[in-house]
Amino acid sequence: MSLDLIVKGGLLVDGTEADVAITGQTIVAVEPGITAPAAQVIDATGRLVTQPLIDCHFHMDATLSYGRPRVNASGTLLEGIRLWGELKAIQTREEIVERALRYCRMAVGQGILAIRSHVDVTDPNFRTVEALLEVRDRVKEVIDLQLVAFPQDGWFRAPGAEAAVIRSLDAGVDIVGGIPHFERTMQAGHDAVTAACRLAADRGLMVDLHCDETDDPLSRHVEVLAAETLRFGLQGRVAGSHLTSMHSMDNYYVSKLIPLIAEARVAAIANPLANIVLQGRHDSYPKRRGMTRVPELLAAGVTVAFAQDSTRDPWYPLGSGDMLEVAQMGLHVAHMTAPAAMRTCFDLVTRAPAEIMGLNFGLAPGCRASLVVLDCADPVDAIRLSPARLAVISNGRVVARTTPARTETSDI
Ligand code: FE2
């Protein structure tokens, strides 16, 4: 057997030592002591070798736009939406593409090899959709970029939004999106969930809704989403993003809701960086954290992922494409500090989002040859230290290398 690439001596997430052998774009062996010759060898001795980091909820049409045309003074979701409306009216297609590609280069350097990005289809000029379709094509050899047809201003609230969703899907956007909590009434939100699920069922697509991104304990569109998922037979193809109202809901109601979400196999995507700054803005004290109930959803068997949502845009002023930073914030906000829970947080930015996006990533024979070598020994240190991504391999090709900074201190 002659190999194209071998990653030698690395440590897998379970602590076992193994070499990873690659032929073409496929992993062909994961075992210790592989002796077959390889065209390229990467020494990963004592370093964590993991499947790629994944960001399954992002807004690439807005990324890196912070400050244009102004900043979000209140820090709220609603001012962010207004500000985005101002930017949407003035930004060019070229500007969106340039920012997105700049972000993608940063993301690859951070070990992100798959991104699900919502794209606002309510831009009357359709620039956002055209720009991100171009970006998806330009990065496809390295990044799996899934696009969600997202009617930011509301499926029914924004005139022509439903037609824009359909036009976007016809143009090649992958997934049906929505934002039911932004509709004018609870009933309109309910109807928007139904419309999204019906459209996805008709076209054989997945659904990923911004759902209940509010502190309102009575915002309960996730209940409708789960029920409609069952009614339309969409089990395993639907994700609810944010779900922050679950943080504020009555516990008795949640004891009925979570089993419904689990039964419908609706995945939950929490966005800890964005939601720890967006939620609780109307509170004095105590201030609610606002992230959805991650440990409880996991305990019920729901597939949960942590995602980034925003990087330097109208909603979030920070961000560097670092999913380990996202995992660390999720760990804090959800109180997931027990050793097993910290390991789970790593899973929520690697394996779980791959499952949600339907990607054949993993460190096993037959999986795609996409992986990351981190400058640490285990998943908890990865979250603790956010170490350098020593090597990033996408589809059998080394696409990024980083030489870690080393600090020397004087005697103390
Ligand atoms: Fe979002």
Write the layout of secondary structure elements.
Layout: E1 3-11, E2 17-23, E3 26-31, E4 38-43, E5 48-50, E6 53-58, H1 77-90, H2 93-109, E7 112-120, H3 127-139, E8 144-150, H4 161-171, E9 175-176, H5 186-203, E10 207-211, H6 221-231, E11 238-242, H7 251-263, E12 266-270, H8 272-278, H9 294-299, E13 304-306, H10 323-333, H11 339-347, H12 351-357, E14 371-374, H13 379-385, E15 389-394, E16 397-401
The structure holds fe (ii) ion (FE2).
Structural overview:
There is one protein chain. With 412 residues, the chain is α/β, with parallel strands linked by helices. It has two domains: 3-51 and 362-401, Roll (Urease, subunit C, domain 1), CATH 2.30.40.10; 53-357, TIM Barrel, CATH 3.20.20.140. It contains 13 helices and 16 strands. It has helices spanning 77-90, 93-109, 127-139, 161-171, 186-203, 221-231, 251-263, 272-278, 294-299, 323-333, 339-347, 351-357, 379-385; strands at 3-11, 17-23, 26-31, 38-43, 48-50, 53-58, 112-120, 144-150, 175-176, 207-211, 238-242, 266-270, 304-306, 371-374, 389-394, 397-401. The protein has a four-stranded mixed sheet with strand order 3-2-1-4, with no helix packed on it. The chain has a four-stranded antiparallel sheet with strand order 5-14-15-16, with no helix packed on it. Strands 6-7-8-9 form a four-stranded parallel sheet. Helix 2 (93-109) runs parallel beside helix 3, helix 5 packs parallel to helix 6 (221-231) and helix 10 crosses helix 11 (339-347). 54% of the residues are buried. The model has no long low-confidence stretch (mean pLDDT 97). Fe (ii) ion is lined by residues 57, 59, 118, 210, 241, 309.
